[in-house]
């Protein structure tokens, strides 16, 4: 955090110092009442509950924003207490003030699939010449937003933020913190239905990106997405940039080619044609790369430079990761997350990599589906049945529905194995897999079966 003096904040928060030093230095901000989070020169937004400050007397200085000073007990000389009428309002005024002190471009990425990869690709494109600040891995929970905002250094040139949507209002909250200049919507599939009343509510939350982005900002969207195609983008009073394979896309993906551990694709923009390569397999990887190139272009980098930089993009672990597997087989480790959209993508990779080899797909339960759990697992069974898979292995109570539906759709029951845990699956694979086998492992992040997957990988 940039060191800030309290008197610079008070006019915005509309607060009044009632106890202690009138202009302390602020180096750290928290809104959660955890003693372990306190440091010297911390600003704490006290929203409710009695708080004893006796144990905090050894800190050099603490500043507390409160609307109920009578609930703050044992305040020492090191404590400054600021009274405000509404703590929540004061907090958001502070966030607004601090965000406005950061004079660098912000990019925010949301979508059912591809958020983390697109974020990393944009960061990689710019990291060669600029200092890029980015969210960590897929740690995109709203509880991290404040820390991410305060973590930006004066030396940073660009901030690239991954924003989650797990309940209504998540995207709005992220935009309150980050106020991105460029917002990206990678795709809208099926996920996090446990946090929404229905699928339409989830879709609408993703689509709220169009209303949340500032009128001077840019929204980059997947023009091939079914939900996006239903919207008249021409009516939007802001800059909209589309990418995809359809003829109307601004960044048009003209050709996609599978090569050895990488994808080659033709990209057309304003009648100019480019051929780029990106490490990693799958059409979805080309979409992610195109979204990243489009974002880089909006931020002033040439398409040629952005695309060429991606040729050296380091692959992310557990994202359609191709490795040597048990008994000389080839293993596709796609255990980062699981939903119908990413399952279709991974099955497409399996089909293109197999080239006549024996195809084995292993699926675990899909999480975050709420009362749609059975329906979505059945839908995945329909998807799997359309693929020419030699063996299907399901692990977990809900995943069994995938196999049952695949049987209903015509898949040979003798080619399907259901397991309650990975032990049985490992035994089957150790007996069945050989050099002529391609094994896809697809599970949710919270069911990644790390030990199981590692036992199948050959180092």
Automatic annotation (TrEMBL):
InterPro entries assigned to the protein according to its UniProt record, in alphabetical order: Mur-like_cat_sf, Mur_ligase_C, Mur_ligase_C_dom_sf, Mur_ligase_cen, MurCDEF_CellWall_CoF430Synth
Tree of life domain: Bacteria
Domain Mur ligase C-terminal: 321-444
Keywords: ATP-binding, Ligase, Nucleotide-binding
GO MF assignments: acid-amino acid ligase activity; ATP binding
Record domain Mur ligase central: where: 109-296
Protein name, per record: UDP-N-acetylmuramoyl-tripeptide--D-alanyl-D-alanine ligase
Organism encoding this protein: Metabacillus litoralis
